[in-house]
Amino acid sequence: MAEKFRAMRGTHDILPEEARTWRWIEDTFAGVSGRYGYEEIRLPVFEATELFERGTGFATDVVQKEMYTFLDKKGRRLSLRPEATPSVIRAFLEHNLGRRAGVSKFFYMGPMFRYDRPGAGRYRQFHQAGVEIIGSPSPGADAEVIGVFWAFLRELGLTKLGMRINTLGCRSCRIKYSEILKDFLSDKLEALCADCKERYAKNPLRVLDCKVAACKVVIARAPDVSTILCAECVEHFDRVKACLQAAGLSFRVDPKLVRGLDYYTRTVFEVYHEAVGIENSLGGGGRYDHLVEEFGGPATPAVGFSSGLERVLLAVEAEGSARGASEAADIVFASLGEQAFIEAFTLASEARKRWRVWLEFDQRKLDRQLATAAKLGARLTAIIGDDELARGVVRIKDMASGDQIELRRQDVIAWLDNRLGGKSSE
Ligand code: HAM
Predict the structure, then answer these.
(1) How far apart are CA 243 and CA 375, in angstroms?
(2) Which of 112, 227, 320, 326 is the most buried (most CB within 10 A)?
């Protein structure tokens, strides 16, 4: 079939077959976050462009190259959100959510937009699930968000996971380290790629993150942040690691891990999966102790992570851990004749209060209707023809054994209750 329209490059449809797995992943995330004491927050998909310029960071690739920015009819500069962390902080301040408790904990899920080069696990509209803790400076909070992430992935049955963690130090350590790095790079600029030359000027830390082979050679010899950390930053990082070890989470300290967003201070981390690759992390996050202040609020520390669900799905597929596809219907109602259809329609409405029911609309030949029931994986088919209608009965066929029984119409629901149990098999 020649189609007129196609989904835009970098976007994708989630078709019913896959949507079941998506629902399972999202339910698992909501379940795990709930058990850790996080409350759901739902936020708009577009915001003032300035929110991301100030939050995500003006110098980041995300803001410089990847935002979908447009003017609305009143000439306001708006952007589709490339990430949700700035929106969470905006909502936190706008609704004064900090007044409720010393520490606020939120989880969220939804589409994000980045004008990225599409490829495996890389989209322009993708989906994230994430959490943020606002109001705690404790290393225990850093370890908890990592724990939520890990528990989520383990609950999906994933085992081939790896984690890298690092610390960037507090604001003054970070500034000091940037200067040291800049010093180190100053006589090696010729060896760096064009992007890194620009990063050197705007944010030298980002050079550490470069994937270009020539830059990696230079980076390997760069001084580590650990050489300049203040005592409090060392202590904070040690305690994060101790919590993770106590919880049995395996991780590797990678002194070159910096991440692509500007707001981080102290702990940063990324989780990856063997099959999806270290370049395509399943998610990442870290501490950002100055973003609330940057948005005009009081000094308030925060920490969080986001996970890319398309990549989580790739990992689930690679490990074959997806929960078996559930059937689309428990019972199909087939009918022959107009009057019989009305009867089937009525009975199906009753059955739908408890079970998943597929009602056949067109009175096709019975074997065609039974073929649909088989395709849907239904356990039972209820059949009403003229003869059944005249006698006030319904014929029920067991799709696995082929056995058929006849029930009085008024006994059908009680019989189904017995046979299918109180609720659908979903
Ligand atoms: P991020 O590292 O920019 O962090 O994105 C988190 C995750 O989103 C990535 O690890 C990846 O799984 C997924 N992701 C990013 N871009 C794409 C893309 N183009 N296609 C598919 N998946 C993608 C953040 O967004 C921060 N908000 C994390 C955070 C929360 N930090 C503190 N709190």
Answers:
(1) 50
(2) 112
